[in-house]
Amino acid sequence: MPEPLTPGELLALDREHVWHPYGPMPGRTEPLLVESASGVRLRLAEPVEGRTELVDGMSSWWSAVHGYRHPVLDEAAHGQLDRMSHVMFGGLTHEPAVRLAKRLVDITPQPLRHVFLADSGSVSVEVAVKMCLQYWRSAGKPRKQRLLTWRGGYHGDTWQPMSVCDPDGGMHELWQGVLPRQIFADAPPPGFDAAPDPAYAAHLRELIARHAEELAAVIVEPVVQGAGGMRFHSPGYLRVLREACDAHGVLLVFDEIATGFGRTGTLFAAEHAGVAPDVMCVGKALTGGYLTLGATLCTTAVADGISRGALPVLAHGPTFMGNPLATAVAGAAIDLLLSQDWAREVARIETGLRTGLAAAERIPGVREVRVLGAIGVVQLDHEVDLAAATRAAVREGVWLRPFRDLLYTMPPYITSDEDVARICAAVCAAARAG
Ligand code: PMP
């Protein structure tokens, strides 16, 4: 066993050596040291603002939908660990991966039949893009290699996904000009319940028609644009995209990495529109937030198209593809979700968020409050003071991670009504402080 280190020593080493997401070096971030987590609670190694326990309002970046240390998921991980934690996927296969693929095909929109097991959300988007570009090459249309997306989106931190993130003021603005040049439609008009705007629908149709010759695919986050701004839009625009893509020979990709597995009130956000994509990406809640895993699903038409090409293989195969531990836990996490009335739990949280966040509307500096499924957003009219807002939430016993002008929560589905109310109180406290 290595020498035990005190919390102070660990944090000093962290500051000296460790990069954090979107963090500067050296050591200008001040992370909280988490010792363990259980249910919806994170346990800190030392008190911060008088708290050693925090309700996780973030589900570890929207993934831990069943909470931490769930006995069913722990059991799935331990059981698989006793058999094998990893084995290469080239030339070998195993039960957890096969069962997971079958489950995913069973629960995702109908024509999706084939599954690539990626090792993160971003990689699942890379694979989706590769599939689309290769499909058109195989069809003898190599000019079709650009993507169309809408502004305000976010699809990950690797190269192709970065190229379809919001180009103005988004996280990857620095790289515009170096990234592949994609085509951007305006962001969809806001409002999940708003009637689709005919002028905007025409804008989408016109862009797809105009660029059809060079467009491999349209890629969007259905219904919720997450890390690009936590905006909701009418599902009607997904139908517009489907029709226009079909009319002009363009593939349609839905990135359900944030919205998948119930977050918006339907199992997948595409269901709000009754529309199926040609390619779909999932991640985050796929393993209940336990392990890193993504998946890219495609139709038989896409898979057959690629297989007919001069290079009849999809040239992608990460070392940890189909990791047995991750796929075993993912299978258990999906079964767990489906074994419960998850839609009722998400609806219960939605009601709690609507009630609790209504108070934020009266706080000076709050521009808008919006709730959809287990997603609650408070948008300010100014940039959040991250340190002040985080501290204010911690004082209320809640973990939040605001960004830009946004305070938001995506709690685990097991969060009690009392804890939802507590999260809302913390969001309000953060809005007053930040
Ligand atoms: N797409 C969407 C919609 C996401 O929200 C995210 C993660 N925030 C990603 C892709 C990237 O996933 P990962 O962080 O697992 O690479």
TrEMBL record:
| Family annotation (Pfam families) | Aminotran_3 (PF00202)
Entry keyword set:
Aminotransferase, Biotin biosynthesis, Cytoplasm, Pyridoxal phosphate, S-adenosyl-L-methionine, Transferase
Under SUPFAM superfamilies, the record lists: PLP-dependent transferases
What's one GO BP annotation on this UniProt entry?
biotin biosynthetic process
To which pathway does this protein belong?
A: Cofactor biosynthesis; biotin biosynthesis; 7,8-diaminononanoate from 8-amino-7-oxononanoate (SAM route): step 1/1
Q: Does the keyword rRNA processing apply?
A: no
E.C. code: 2.6.1.62
Organism's domain of life?
Answer: Bacteria
* UniProt keyword S-adenosyl-L-methionine, yes or no: yes
Annotated catalysed reactions: (8S)-8-amino-7-oxononanoate + S-adenosyl-L-methionine = S-adenosyl-4-methylsulfanyl-2-oxobutanoate + (7R,8S)-7,8-diammoniononanoate
Positions of modified residues (N6-(pyridoxal phosphate)lysine): 284
Give the family, as the similarity comment puts it.
Belongs to the class-III pyridoxal-phosphate-dependent aminotransferase family. BioA subfamily.
- Protein name (database record): Adenosylmethionine-8-amino-7-oxononanoate aminotransferase
